[in-house]
Amino acid sequence: MGSGCATYSDKTESMRELISAGQYEAGLAEVNRFIKVKDPVELPTKWKSETALAVLERATILHAMGSWDASATNFQAADEQLEFLDLRSSADEIGRYVFSDAATHYRTTPTEKLSLNGVNLINYLAQGDLDGAAIEAKRFTVMRNYLLDYDPEHAHGAFGSYLAGFVAERQGNPDSALRYYDEALQERELPTLIEPIGRLGQRGSYRSERLDRYLGGGGAGFPAPAKEAAPAEAASDDDEPAQDPAAPIPVADANPAAPNPAEVLVIIKTGRVPYKVPVRIPIGAAIGLAGAFVTGNTALLEHSAMKVVVFPDLQPAGNLFDSAEWTIDGYPVQLDLVSDLGAEINREFDELRPKIIGSAITRMIVRAAAAEGARAAGNQGNEVVGLLSALAIEGAMVALDKPDTRSWTTLPDRVWIGRTQVPPGEHTLEIVVRGSGGEERRTAQVNVGPGGYVVLDVTTLR
After folding, report:
1. 131-162 tens-digit pLDDT
2. pTM, entire model
3. Which of 28, 107, 344, 415 has minimal CB crowding within 10 Å?
4. Is residue 50 part of a domain?
């Protein structure tokens, strides 16, 4: 990571390149150098304007590496330092923050804030720590309820709601689980919830229009292998796994007192969300984009030496993988795209962009007015002196502005969740992610106890 006058996106470029190459250890070392520590769990003694965000990046890399405890420690430390960006703020207030030369603490967007709690919740689930996951689910709920009051038209954090529902379900709280699953369904239909909602509906009383569509439905269950099926290692690559559709493993007993079924839940996270970089556009185009968020006389800009507007905008991360699938013991299992975080980040910034550009233009008008005053004063003695005075003042004021390109650059782009009931015992899971970068496969062996569960997380960040 670089330093000096570089923007945050400049400083983190080498880290992102290493992660895109799958070199997580090297990417982690880059972040540690930036934070000025050596150990991945060592926290900084001084928290500067970019420190909390760098710790957040480190938490995400550790999460992708499966270092659950270290990741959770970093997420919690970053969460305590980060502030929240109110998208309803005026263009002037947004501008003071965006063009502050990164002098203030980083403010997370709604999507980033809920994702922090959601991803950290996975750190606990992956270790089988329901109590820790429940605490993080409460933090997630507090923020989500706040956002629901503040922005009722948009749903946020579907994957966090889904996982909080799973925690509540496993802790024997059917109504809480149903409420969380109802939240997750606000964004899109999730076939993996058909069976759990149907089962929970027999024990809980919470209802909604969305849940009513799912109640009464049933999952296909986990397919048992055919009695004469050949071992998986003997099958060719082109063969489909043998199945006996007439003999699926049944879903949980409808008896409300029945224990939880043995279950496997898989979370797959692919890519990274768009990140901020400084961009330049002509003044005329900028005025059209800013609309009513410009304050002042734009005619003053006709004499300005600065003919472009510089502001932070989003750039795609260049993800290698954008789809996923999984199998268990050779059988394909349903996988839902639960959250498209990249799309949510883009939507939030679409709301901010006119305010940011409007603020940038307004600041240019102020500079142009100051420069025009200097020009007029200088012209009383000499036109060249007047021009030089105007350029000096305008240039000095421009130097005070540097677009803030800070953002959570390692936040996963897409979150997929799959789940299925299984017979107790050992099972082989295979996860495949695909995209322009080809495909990547990961295999895991899990052992599920009677009535127990296993949560497996695979995060590519590529």
Report:
1. 999 999 999 999 999 888 777 777 789 999 99
2. 0.84
3. 107
4. no
